[in-house]
Amino acid sequence: MSDGARTTSLYTADQVRRVERHAIDRFGIPGFDLMQRAAAAAYAVLRRRWPAARRVLLLVGEGGNGGDALLLGTLALRDGLAVEALALSDRSTGDAAQARAAFDRAGGRVRVADAAAEFGDADVCVDGLFGIGLSRPLDGVAAALVARLDATRRPVLALDVPSGLDADTGARLGPCVRADATVVFVAWKRGLFTADGAEACGERELATLDVPLAAFEDVPADADLLDASIAGVLAPRRDNANKGHYGHVLAIGGDEGMGGAIRLAGEAALRTGAGLVSVATRPAQVAVASAARPELMVRGVDDRSALDPLLARASVVAIGPGLGQAPWGRALYDAALDCGKPLLLDADALNLLARSPRALPPSTVLTPHPGEAARLLGCDTATIQRDRYAAVRSLAQRYAAVAVLKGAGSLIADAHGRVAVCRWGNPGMASGGMGDLLTGVVAGLLAQGLSAWDAARFGVALHARAGDLAAADAPRGMIAGDLLAPLRHLVNRFEA
Which ranges carry the YjeF C-terminal domain (predicted)? Predict the structure, then answer.
C-alpha cells in the first residue's frame, strides 16, 4: 500500500482492528500511545473547526472510544478550556482506564450520566460513546443521551464513528449521533460513505495516527473510494478522429407517455461523448424527441422486427428508461438481450430480468435503485439498505455483471467481488430522470471502448459530480436536465 492508496482504501471494523493489532504487536506501538495520538488529532480538529469554543462536553463510553474522548478532554483542560465528562459507567476498561486516570490528574471530573442528564452550556460536544465496536441499537442511557444531543443541536465532533452507526454498512442501528464532523482513526471505515453514513458523519477527516503502512500488508482493503484519478480510464481524443471512433449507442425505451425518460438517456450518452446515439421508442414519441434534440436519431418501433436492424448497427445497447413491462417492452427487451452486445439494463429492464432471470451478455451493467435491487435478489428494500455492500456484491455475482447500486453513496461491484464507492452526489438528485441520465452516461462510456467496470465507475463519478456542480448551494428543485452542461465539462476535465 502507498500513502495515496491509504486515502482511498475502505475497511471493515474487523480489518481495522487487525491493523491496529499489527501496529501494537509487530511495530511495538503501545495501545495507549495510539489512544494519545487519536486524542491529539481529534483535539486539533476541534480547535481548528471551533476556535472560539471555551466549553467542551465529553460523552464517554467504557472502552477505547471513551478513552480517546477523555484524553482529548485532558488536552483541553491543559489549554484552559472548561471540560465536563458524562460517562455511561463509573469505570473504564483496558487502556481507557489509564486515560480516565490522566483526565482525573488534569483536574477533570467524570459524572455518571442518567437518562435526564443535562448538557449545560457546552460550545462543542464530543461523541466518545462507542466508536467501531457497536453492532446493536443504542438503548437505555446511551439512547437518551443521543436523543438529547440531537435535540440540542449543539456542534458535535464524533470520534472514529458516530455512535449508533454501523461502521461496516453505514446503516443507523437505531438512535444515532448526527455529527458536524467525524475524525476517523487509522483508516476509513467503509460504512461512513454509504447509506446513512455521510449524513451521520458530517465532514469526515482521516487521522492515520502514523500507523506504519507495513501494518496493512496482509489486510487488503474491502473497497475503494472513487477519486479524481478515475478520469484516467478515458483516453484523450486524437486529432485525426471521426464519430465512428466513439461508438454507437442504441437507447431503447419510452413507452406511451414515457418518452422523456429515453430522450434523457440518449442525450446523456451524447453529452458523455458517444459518436452516435439512436433511440428506439414508440412511433408517437418520435416527432417530439427529434425536434427537442435533433442530434438523436430517433426511430419508431412497433415490434421486435423493427428493432433488429437498429440492434445490428449499434455497438452498445441501453434499455429500460420508460420501457414498461407490457408486451411491447418485453419484446424489445428480449431482442436486446439476444443481440450479444455490451448492454446496460435499467428501470423496467431490471424488473423484467427479476421476473425471469436469464444469462446476460458479457460486458453487461445493471443500474438498480434499492427497490429494483430487492426484486432482483428476491428480498425487500430494507434488507438491501441494511447492508448495501453485501447487496451489490450479490447482484454482481448472481448476474455475472457489473452492478451499480444507486443511492446515497452509490456502490459499484463486479463479479469478482471488487467494490468502488462514490463519495459525491447530493439530496437534490432525488428527483425523476436522474437514473435515466446515468443510463446514458454509462452507455456513452461503454461506446467509447471502456470496460463495463471502468464505464460504471467513471459514469457514476461523472453523474454525481455533475449533480454537485448543478446543485451548488440550491439542491432543492434541481432537475435531471440541469446536469447536462456540467456533464459535458466534467467528461473533458474531471474535477473532484
Answer: 226-494
Residue with cell 488534569: 106
The boundaries of every CATH 3.40.50.10260 domain in the chain are 3-223
> Binding site annotation covers 322?
yes
436 marked as part of a ligand binding site: yes
Which residues of the chain register pLDDT less than 50?
Answer: none
Check: CB of residue 443 under 8 Å from CB of residue 251.
Answer: yes
Give the pLDDT score at 268.
Answer: 98
Determine whether the annotation assigns residue 482 to a binding site: no
163 is in an annotated binding site: yes
First to last CA, the chain: 22
Is 127 labeled as ligand-binding? yes
Burial code of 76-96, b = ≥16 C-beta within 10 A, e = fewer?
bbeeebebbbbbbeeebeebb
State how far the Cα of 247 lies from the Cα of 448, in Å rounded to an integer: 6
189 labeled binding residue: no
How many beta carbons lie within 10 A of that of residue 316, not counting itself?
A: 27
SS3 of 319, please? Answer: strand
Residue 4 is predicted with a pLDDT of: 74
> For the segment 412-430, what is each residue's pLDDT rounded down to a tens digit?
999 999 999 999 999 999 9
The answer to the question of whether 170 is labelled as a binding residue is: no
475 is an annotated ligand-binding site residue: no
Per-residue confidence (pLDDT) for residue 135, from 0 to 100 = 84
Asked whether residue 479 is marked as a ligand-binding residue, the answer is no
Does 240 count as an annotated binding residue? Answer: no
Q: Is 406 marked as a binding-site residue?
A: yes
* pLDDT at site 29: 98
Longest CA–CA separation in the chain, Å: 84
Q: Find out whether 431 is annotated in a ligand binding site.
A: no
What DSSP string describes 110-159?
EEE--TT---TT-SEEEEES-GGG--S---HHHHHHHHHHHHHT--EEEE
Cell of 204: 469526515
Q: Is 496 annotated as a binding residue?
A: no
Strand pairing category for 188-189 and 124-128: unpaired
Cα–Cα dist 354/19, whole Å: 40
CATH number of this structure's domain 228-492: 3.40.1190.20
Q: Is 278 annotated as a binding residue?
A: no
Q: Is 305 annotated as a binding residue?
A: no
- 410 in a labelled binding site: yes
**351 labelled as ligand-binding?**
no
Tell me if 435 is assigned to a ligand binding site.
Answer: yes
Return the C-alpha cell found at 196: 446513512
Please name the fold of domain 3-223. Answer: Rossmann fold (3.40.50)
107 is in an annotated binding site: no
Please give the DSSP secondary-structure letter assigned to residue 175. Answer: S
* CATH 3.40.1190.20 domain position(s) in the chain: 228-492
Rounded CA separation 59/129 (Å): 6
Chain mean position to CA 32: 33
369 appears as a binding residue in the annotation: yes
- Cell (9 digits) for 17: 482492528
Q: Which helix (H) or strand (E) holds 185?
A: strand 181-185
Q: Is 220 annotated as ligand-binding?
A: no
